[in-house]
Amino acid sequence: MTGPATYTHEYGRATARVGCRAGARGCGDPAVGQLVPGLLQTPAYARAVFQSARTNFTQDDLDKAVANRLARAKLLQTLSGPIAWTLLDESVLRRRVGGPLVMAEQLRTVADMAESGRLRLHVLTFDAGAHALLKGMLYLLNFRNAAPIAYAEGLYTGNLIDDPALVDACHTDDALALGDAVPHRKSVALVRAIAEEHEHAQC
Questions:
Q1: Coil, helix or strand for 54?
Q2: Which has the closest alpha carbon to 86: 34, 40, 150, 18?
Q3: Strand 5-7 and strand 158-161: pairing?
Q4: If we measure between CA atoms, which residue out of 123, 139, 140, 132 comes closest to residue 192?
Q5: Does pTM top 0.70 for this prediction?
Q6: d(Cα 42, Cα 151) in Å, to the nearest integer?
Q7: Residue-wise burial string across 69-96, b where 16 or more C-beta atoms lie within 10 A, e elsewhere
Q8: Cβ neighbours of residue 18 under 8 Å, at least 6 residues apart?
Q9: Reduced to 3 states, what is the DSSP secondary structure of residue 143?
């Protein structure tokens, strides 16, 4: 391909799996979006996300959707798996998906992953103001034996980008946003602090 191509999420998952083994940065997780990335989601958080986006759903539908998401998340739990990088907007940390206790658990899970060394975590706080990735969600995949690609995600479809100039532009946007973000250790501390806020809001 010589430019962006629309493709389904199923193909996107396959691309992410290829990248994981080869050490893809992000392993299919987005840099900045409105939700915690799918590969980092807890069962309760994932269930709340799916439930909010579906009508006339059955419990079996939700169970299958959550199980599929958790199966993909195992990519980050193996010793041979990738180290993921993710940028989270502060709004993602404060939006109470599933309620205060679900959010507290979700944020502690993200912080635990970051402290385990499986995740490089950076937060774009509200104080950062406008940043280069406000336009949408972006995945960056780098391979040992192939050219890098990018994936810009929409509501039901996404754009697989392999044009070198566009991929380079995506990396530039990512680098600019990362430059505005909080460093890894401070980001972990911030995530844990906001988790505490959610838990205390339940009291």
A1: coil
A2: 40
A3: antiparallel
A4: 123
A5: yes
A6: 23
A7: beebbebbeeeeebebbbbbbbebbeee
A8: 24, 143
A9: coil
Contacts of 129 (CB under 8 A, 6+ apart): none
Evaluate whether 142 touches 98 at the Cβ level (below 8 Å). no
Predicted confidence (pLDDT) per residue in 142-187, tens digit: 777 888 899 888 777 788 999 999 999 999 999 999 999 999 999 9
Number of C-beta neighbours around residue 10 at 10 A: 8
pLDDT at position 47 over 80 = yes
- Three-state DSSP class for residue 158: strand
**Nearest Cα residue to 96 out of 44, 28, 153:** 44
Model confidence band, residue 79 (pLDDT cutoffs 50, 70, 90)? low
Task: Using CB atoms within 10 Å of the CB of residue 25, give its burial: 0 to 12 exposed, 13 to 18 middle, 19+ buried.
Answer: buried
Which of 61, 128, 125, 46 lies closest to 93, judged by CA?
A: 125
- Taken as a whole, the chain contains a residue count of 203
The one-character DSSP state at 35 is S
Query: What is the per-residue pLDDT for 110?
Result: 96
**Quick one: average pLDDT of 106-116?**
95
For residue 189, the Cα-to-chain-centroid distance in whole angstroms is 18
The residues pairing with 120 across neighbouring beta strands, listed in sequence order, are 85
